[in-house]
Amino acid sequence: MDVTATPMETLLKRFQLFKPPTFKGTKNSVYCDTWLEDIEQLFESLDFSDDLHIGLVVHQLHEVAKNWWITTKKALEHQVSYRKDKGDEFANLRQDNLSIEEYVAKFSSLLKFAPHIAATDEVMADQFINGLNPDVFTLVNSGRPNNFAEALNKAKGV
């Protein structure tokens, strides 16, 4: 056993011992399905967790299939990065020089990128109120609204 090997390298060596089939890409859907079934059966036999599958199966992709994976991986990474950036933008959103209507529109459009930040109606209201300009914040925060709808109505009333 190689003591310098990472856990993934050790798993990959174990996986490769079973001579998993490679996939070069094809238009034949039957071949694709058969290959996928064979790989899944091997994962099941080896009792590998689902989160390891992609890291291991990528080594079995060659030629067109490997090129497809490289392109797909870049697109996925870009999408994740974009969603993270938008989530950060939502977390740091401030009214600044936006009107209430513009702030509400931006808040609503960014909300879908950060559902974990506004997991409940009360937390969403807090996030909304905390992003308001100080003078609007003071007026809306008096008699602290219990939910987003109340906070929104108070802000529009100001």
Describe, in short, the structure shown.
This protein has eight helices and no strands. It has 158 residues and is an all-alpha fold. The longest helix is centred in the middle third of the chain and has 29 residues.
Lay out the secondary structure.
Elements: H1 7-17, H2 29-46, H3 50-57, H4 63-91, H5 100-111, H6 121-130, H7 134-141, H8 148-157
What share of residues is helical?
Answer: 55-70%
**Overall SS class:** mainly alpha
Write down the Rg. Answer: 25 Å
Q: Helices and strands, in N-to-C order?
A: HHHHHHHH
Shape: elongated
Provide mean pLDDT, rounded.
Answer: 91
Low-confidence stretches: none
User: Sheet bearing the most strands, described?
Assistant: none
Spatial gap, N to C terminus: 70 Å
The total domain count is 2
Q: What is the overall number of helices? A: 8
Question: How would you sum up this structure, described in words?
Answer:
This protein is mostly helical. The protein folds into two domains: 1-63, no CATH class; 87-157. It has eight helices and no strands. The protein has helices spanning 7-17, 29-46, 50-57, 63-91, 100-111, 121-130, 134-141, 148-157. The radius of gyration is 25 Å and the shape is elongated. The mean pLDDT is 91.
Please tag this protein with its features:
158 residues; mainly alpha; 2 domains; 8 helices; 0% strand; elongated
